[in-house]
Amino acid sequence: MKYILISQSFRRQLKVLRRYLTEQDVVDDIARFIRRGLTKGETFLEAYTISQIHLEIVKLRLSVYRVDFRYLIGVIEQRDYLPIIIDLKKGRYGQNLSLNADRQTVVAIESAIIRMVEDYLEHTEASPTLTAYSVEES
């Protein structure tokens, strides 16, 4: 069983884009990625080990109602999938959403990764900071 975990920091990003897409659109697209793997235009970016957690960063594409988005997800231990940052394809970060882009984009991505890892480490059954969606592999 694999899980898609949505953090509060990612929800704040979605709030800005709420006129274009919902949280469920992102969850459905990550579930598609879990079942089928990478498709055209989607790439594996980087692998990190942060405080005993193996984290892989993957860049995905999403199109909802003819509006294109680019977003990064973190794959933790091939079990938990956490979206990190999302932007319109023609937006400030979506044009070159990678770790070798201009300095402002890299700083935004790195701070989003740090927030995501902090949310993941602080998440417990007693005080949940993430919303979990389970996904069956096929």
Key terms for this structure?
alpha+beta; 6-stranded mixed sheet; 6 strands; 31% helix; 138 residues
Which structural class matches the secondary elements?
A: alpha+beta
Distance between the termini: 10 Å
Helix content: 25-40%
How many distinct helices? 3
Number of strands: 6
How many domains is the backbone divided into? 1
Arrangement of strands in the largest sheet: 2-3-4-5-1-6
Mean pLDDT across residues: 83
Shape: globular
pLDDT under 50 segments (min length 5)?
Answer: none
The portion of residues forming beta strands comes to 35-45%
Structure notes:
Helix content is 31%, strand content 37%. The chain is an alpha+beta fold and 138 residues long. It has one domain. It has a six-stranded mixed β-sheet with strand order 2-3-4-5-1-6, with helices on both faces.
Protein topology:
Elements (H helix, E strand, L loop, with lengths): L1 E6 H9 L6 H14 L6 E8 L2 E12 L2 E10 L3 E9 L14 H20 L7 E6 L3
Parallel strand pairs: 1-5
Antiparallel strand pairs: 1-6, 2-3, 3-4, 4-5
